[in-house]
Amino acid sequence: MARPVNLLYRLYERRLKRELDKSVPVPRHVGVITDGNRRWAKEFGATTADGHRAGAAKIVEFLGWCSEIDVEIVTLYVLSKENLARSAEEVSILIEIISDLVEKIAALDGVGVQLVGDLEIVPADLRSRLEAVTTDSDSPMRVNVAVGYGGRQEIVNAVRSLLRARTDVGTDLETIISELSPEQIGEHLYTKGQPDPDLIIRSSGEQRLSGFLMWQSAYSEFYFCEAYWPDFRRTDFLRAVRDYGLRQRRFGK
Questions:
Q1: 18 lies in a domain?
Q2: Is the model's pTM score more than 0.85?
Q3: In a domain, 184, yes or no
Q4: Catalytic one of 50, 83, 231, 243
């Protein structure tokens, strides 16, 4: 028999889902900062590895929720450039868990995987496993997995790529400078060809981006949830989407 609290959550979820089905617009692209795995583990007396594994399992569950409401693109912030500076033991654990996670995502029906980040700084064993599972972008849902990612570095790399592309065809520096535009830089970002995120969700109660999609998030809507990522529920997700749908987006106007 379902416990009363669980039953109430199910009823509440159904109400939220009905609201979304009727009139609330759904974000096309959702970015997620999956924060709080280590604090969750510490609070419940588990190991750091247990926390990261619980977080990985939640990501797979989360993608199912996104599929239910026809989200087209999901960008997951799973390993930042700064995370690679943690202890060798924790980085080793993260490498194994993220590799397994990406392989599981790639095996999901209707999901295409794209890596976003500076793969040159990612350990070789992780990089080789990740590159092996990059899949067709024509799938109904595209999942960007941000590994070795830093928002500032992405912009630096985009500008470098743009300069190389223009100089390779003989364009002089003064012309490059005079013609430089946000659209040109956007064509050299990790997410080139994709729409910017409509909604960015961060778990664990922290209210900052930590360098996530700094360029692309200029006009995104943000939703901050108190729950640690392993405790993030379908109810929390539906609340975030409903909140997004009720906002009036101005795009800086």
A1: no
A2: yes
A3: no
A4: 83
Contact 245, 25 (CB under 8 A): yes
**Structure token digits, residue 103:** 């392989």
CATH number reported for the structural domain that contains residue 90 in this entry: 3.40.1180.10
* Known catalytic membership, residue 144: no
Structure tokens at 84: 């690679």
- Residue linked to tokens 């929390």: 236
Closest CA to 32 of 219, 216, 209, 239: 209
Query: How many angstroms separate the CA atoms of 37 and 93, rounded?
Result: 13
208-246 pLDDT tens trace: 999 999 999 999 999 999 999 999 999 999 999 999 998
Strand ordering across the sheet containing 29-33? 111-116, 141-149, 73-80, 29-33, 199-202, 221-224
Structural tokens at position 244? 């997004």
Q: E strand or H helix at 217, and its extent?
A: none
Question: What is the DSSP code string of 83-94?
Answer: GGGS-HHHHHHH
Range of the structural domain that residue 230 is part of: 24-149+196-246
Task: Give pLDDT tens digits for 103-113.
Answer: 999 999 999 99
Report how many domains make up the chain.
Answer: 1
Catalytic residue among 35, 196, 198, 236: 35
- 157 given a catalytic annotation: no
Q: Is 60 within a domain?
A: yes
Distance of alpha carbon 75 from alpha carbon 79, whole angstroms? 12
